[in-house]
Amino acid sequence: MGKSDLHIHTTYSMDGTATVREALESARRTGLDVIAITDHDEVRGSLEARALSTEYGIQVIPGAEVSTSEGHLIVLFIERNIPSGMSLIDTLICVREMGGMAIAAHPDHPIPSSISLQSILKALEHPQAREALYGLEVYNMNPTHSPFNARSQKAAADLPLAHIASSDAHIASMIGAGMTHFDGSNVRDLRQAIQRRDTRPEQVNHEWPPRIFFRWLRLFLRRKINEVFAKNETSQSLSSNPID
Description:
The protein has 7 helices and 9 strands, in the order E-H-E-H-E-E-H-E-H-E-H-E-E-H-E-H. By secondary structure, the protein is α/β, with parallel strands linked by helices.
């Protein structure tokens, strides 16, 4: 039985704290077979991870978390960025044209970044958009979303979509906090399982969400402070070594 985490952020996301290598190392320690790096509206992290994946014995799906005008969408199997801000249907049509597949991230949560059940139903009625929408996260272990997972599970109950569990990790230690199990062990097997709607979501982490949030906040602030120091050191180096 394969294990995957299809919603992971790195420092290519403004709010991520793990480097690509740190994410891969954490995925290896957790025993995952397949991961997707899904930075906000950015595929570079996933492409870097794929290039490094053999060093860690992990298979990587290229992807991104795309910001539609109706909420966030996990998009897998893409090689370039998808424009943000489009409607859900237009985004799904774009995903279809690129040969990708989409998963609604933390659906029907009462926050602006979540796609509503109404929008999902509308997309499933569209002949082209529905060909790209394959799954819904029923477990999202980001501390801002996990309290509302019951809403996602209720929304997914009667829909013809695969059930996905993801960490939505913004820190390395949370990778694998939500796992999607599938028959097989590789990317092809996982894709086929999602297409068949034959996936098994599992909530692995049961920490108190505020504890996770404050762990992320500490690492996020450390990252920002380090970035400021690095920028200042670069500026000082350039000023002390002017180009003639």
